[in-house]
Every structure is written in structure tokens, then in C-alpha cells.
Amino acid sequence: MTQQLILKPEKCVGCRTCELMCSFGHNGVFNPRLSSVSVIDYPESTVTIPLMCLQCEDAVCQNVCPVGAIYRDKNDAVVIDPAKCIVCKLCVNACPLGNMKFSPITRSVFKCDLCGGTPQCARYCHAGAIVYVDPHEDSDRKKRIADQFKEAFSEVKS
């Protein structure tokens, strides 16, 4: 059975280890700007949330790619084939959660690829805010997470 990343924002302590391990694992440098994970801090509601591609079932980024450079791999991760990618950035604009990124350093589009089946963000998240598990272990989890996001975002008003 396919595993997936599960976010548990209530456990996030804001250490940003996930950002550092992601950038190091993919680029060999500790640079959060090159990370597929972004830790967002909401001080008004005292919440810190790790965000990354959640491997959407109907991935908009994949649907808008004009050259078919985005596909699902054997781990059910939505990944980018750099040999096919023309860096048009349509996928970056299409992602409803902003989890597709463009690196001006490598001049390429990137996103979470689940590290080939061993996500380093989950491996090094000692607080347990990011885990890589069977998604059916807690069927009510998605609703609870959505409720937490709704509560956190309602506290942050412009």
C-alpha cells in the first residue's frame, strides 16, 4: 500500500529542520529557499505549519503541463522530469497551495518528490509534525487537519 506525507501542525515546534534536510538532500546545501518544504509561522494564533506538496489526487500541476513533464512515479509521488520540462512555470502558477517552486539558482521548477520514497523531512522531524505513513491509519485525520487550518487562518485577518 502507498504511503503519504501526513502533516500534524499541532506538533510542529518551528525548528525548520525539515526545510534544511530537504534542501541538503536535493541540493547538497542547507538553504531553505531550495527546500520543497516551507514552515509558515502564524504568531497571532501561535501556530507553526510545515507546508509542502501533498501529492494531490488530481494534480493541477500535472494537468496544466504542456509537455507532459509531470507524472506519478512508483511511490505515487507527482514528480517532474527535468529532461522534458521547458520551465514555462505554468505548474507554479496553477498549484492552489503554492507548493511548486522555481529556483533562480538552478533555473528549474521543483517540488516535493517524496525523496524517492524516503522523505527526509519526515525522517528528521523529531517532533512528529511530518510523518510518512499509510493514509488509511486514521480516516478522520484529514477533517481534523482541515479544521485546524481553518481555525488558524481565521485568526489571521488582514
User: Kindly state the mean pLDDT as a whole number?
Assistant: 88
Structural class: alpha+beta
Give the strand order of the largest sheet, numbering strands 1, 2, ... along the chain: 1-8
Multimeric state: single chain
Principal-axes shape call: globular
Name the poorly predicted regions.
none
User: What does the radius of gyration come to?
Assistant: 16 Å
Q: What is the string of SSEs from the N terminus onward?
A: EHEEHEEHEEHEH
User: Could you give a short account of the major beta sheet?
Assistant: 2 strands, antiparallel
The percent of residues in helical segments reads 25-40%
Q: Please report which band the strand proportion falls in: under 5%, 5-15%, 15-25%, 25-35%, 35-45% or over 45%.
A: 15-25%
> First CA to last CA: what distance?
42 Å
Q: Report the count of strand segments.
A: 8
- Count of helical regions: 5
Write the topology of this structure.
Elements: E1 4-7, H1 17-27, E2 38-42, E3 47-51, H2 60-64, E4 70-72, E5 78-80, H3 90-94, E6 101-103, E7 108-110, H4 120-123, E8 130-133, H5 141-155
Antiparallel strand pairs: 1-8, 2-3, 4-5, 6-7
Q: What descriptors fit this protein?
A:
158 residues, alpha+beta, two-stranded antiparallel sheet, 19% strand
